[in-house]
Amino acid sequence: MLDYIPFIRIPVILENGLSTFSLLMMLAFLVGSFLLPKEFERRKLDPSHSDWLIFLGILGTLIGAKIFFIFEIWDQIFVSIPGYDGKYLYPLTHWDGFPGQRGLWSSLFSGGGLVFFGGMLFGLLFITLYFRYFKLDTGSYLDAIAPAMSIGYAIGRLGCFVSGDGCYGFATDAHIPLFVFEFHGAHPSGVPVWNTPVMESLMAFAYFAYFQYWARYQNFKKWSLSAQFFMIHGTARLLIEFLRVNKAVFPFVDPPEIVNIPDANGNPTFLSGYYWHGFSQSQYISLALILIGVIVFVKGKLWQKEVQSA
């Protein structure tokens, strides 16, 4: 029988306190900064914009990822605590929030807690505003960005895995090397769980290969690659969320109870109670991205190629 692949936090000791997650995030943007100007040049777009777009992508990622994280834990920040007045005022005026709960400001400015979708959406927002300000051809530039966004996401997801930040799946009895591992990160469960960060990263590398080595050479109509990215990325994230430990926005069935009782081997068993019980925040965003992509793709007949001028 195949053994589970144990999870080992990759140790990185640097004086400036950089983590493995930070290094992989930096690598993701560095790879993007290498690919982007080359694709701009190939498409006869102005490569001088690439540095600003990378900067805005980083800025949007940091801001959006944190804001969406706050929305994700909203009910853990603004709660009704007996003996404390001001359900919404108290967390605004106290750094650590209510005793025993998450603090709004401490969570917002902490080193952890990042929601990738929030970072991607805010990054796209900042970049689109940049296009409008300089009156650039938004569709052409976004199409050129699709491959870089894909590989950036793939590398960034590996950062989630090595950091052990909790982007894991629920417990499983499957014995699948690489796709199942024993989580020993921030929540030391000691039980085999779906390795969703690596699974999602592999999917992102796959559609990066699709964009980088085939789709961008097909002379599709403008906006086609952007619409395809929304549909492919949204579908990948929608599917992987069915395996992840996530809270449903509107539960369709009773949510799992978190019971931390040691099993026969002394391992906490709280992960085994998880199951999909409704669409998560990320799944609703995924559905919106898929819908937008489908509408743009179908309305513009973007499977067609540009007509070459004689």
Automatic annotation (TrEMBL):
Gene Ontology biological process terms from the UniProt entry: lipoprotein biosynthetic process
Binding site for a 1,2-diacyl-sn-glycero-3-phospho-(1'-sn-glycerol): R157
Gene Ontology CC annotations of this record: plasma membrane
One matching Pfam family: LGT
Pathway: Protein modification; lipoprotein biosynthesis (diacylglyceryl transfer)
Membrane-spanning parts: 20-40, 52-74, 108-131, 151-171, 191-211, 223-240, 281-298
Keywords: Cell membrane, Lipoprotein, Membrane, Transferase, Transmembrane, Transmembrane helix
Family annotation (InterPro entries): Lgt
EC number: 2.5.1.145
Bilayer topology term: Multi-pass membrane protein
Main location: membrane
Single GO term (MF): phosphatidylglycerol-prolipoprotein diacylglyceryl transferase activity
Subcellular locations according to the entry: Cell membrane
The family this protein is said to belong to: Belongs to the Lgt family.
PANTHER family reported in the protein's UniProt record: PHOSPHATIDYLGLYCEROL--PROLIPOPROTEIN DIACYLGLYCERYL TRANSFERASE, PROLIPOPROTEIN DIACYLGLYCERYL TRANSFERASE
Classification via NCBIfam families: PRK00052.3-2 (NF000777)
Function: Catalyzes the transfer of the diacylglyceryl group from phosphatidylglycerol to the sulfhydryl group of the N-terminal cysteine of a prolipoprotein, the first step in the formation of mature lipoproteins.
Protein's recorded name: Phosphatidylglycerol--prolipoprotein diacylglyceryl transferase
Source organism of this protein record: Leptospira idonii
Gene name in the database record: lgt
